[in-house]
Amino acid sequence: MKILFLNQTFHPDVVATAQYLADLAPTLVERGHEVTVVCSRRAYDDPGQRYPARETWRGVTIRRISCFGFGKKARWKRAASFGSYIVNCALHLAALPRFDVVVGMTSPPLISWLGALLTRLRGGRFVFWVMDLNPDEALAAGWLRKGSLTTRVLQRILESSLHQSAAVVALDRFMAGRIEAKGVSADKIAVLPPWSHDDVVRYDAEGRKQFRQQHALGDAFVVMYSGNHTPCHPLATLLDAAERLWDRKDIKFCFVGGGSELKTVRQFAATRQIQNIVVVPYQPLEALSASLSAADLHTVVLGDAFVGIVHPSKVYNIRALGIPYLYIGPAESHVSDLGPAFSARHGEVDQVVRYVQEAAADAVAAGRARRTLPVVSRQSLVGRMATILESAVSNEMLVKTRVAGPETAS
Q: Is the peptide bond before 406 cis (omega within 30 degrees of 0)?
């Protein structure tokens, strides 16, 4: 079977969608399929970095295309970069042969529409792997105005992609509910959460020590936010907690990753002269065990308006390491379903401060002991995702089997 993936990022990029696709694509090759990925030549968080235009990696054919590298500091720059990518992608797709299955992801937003159009013109089946839901995300973030012409057009494009699909893969039950509310039959919606990278991400005591030394964390109790910094994950409550605890030399807040809001973290720390905030750039997958292991308490943050729209997948790697995590977000969400160690709403700074202090005291008393948490098995879920794609050709709706929560890794 010939399978085509459309996504802006792929190996060796370090953002989440690239890593999940890099898990799935070689697995499909091992199962005897011909796999092609069309992605961008530019690194997601560093547009100045370019990858080879053509490459074969673990049996996967990679076709990287050019686009503007304006970055993400302004909305028009982001839109221009996305637009140039979509136009160039359309031109490249016109020159490609027919595929049995075309899988559209969601970076850049609505790239799935090209995949749906390609199968409509050339034949084959279209599968929509929804990693986030746009333009719903742009509406929730205030980037689009409800009822505007642009919003209506983008909603129609999204709905067209959903209805054209042979199968839709949502990441949680809340996302599935939003998709079903758009008129998509529940029979073709699979709920398949992201998996932990439990094959390469493990607790790393030596890596923890080196990371903490490298970034001057010492023996402090480290509260870490690791991942994408965007308006979907508002950090105001966590930052306010860090400011309240500025005089606690034994507690530090470490922000690891990238994204448009990382500058907000830097500015907050600089303008308030807060010494207990440490900012670290994105870590490659091979260094992720060390960086994640350096935390004593992780944080997972979700904006109130983004339930069922975005899915903080980093929670699965955190659970795989057995490190407690603090959740800041709405009471009803997929993160709540997983049972965090502590949960707070946005604005509940006092509660967050109190929990961090208690967790720091408990960690010292218990020698920073970790506990085993149920995790979503990579091996199991990558196989399930591969089966969904294989079944799309024969129209066997195996996607009816839903995965509602974490499994114990095998």
A: no
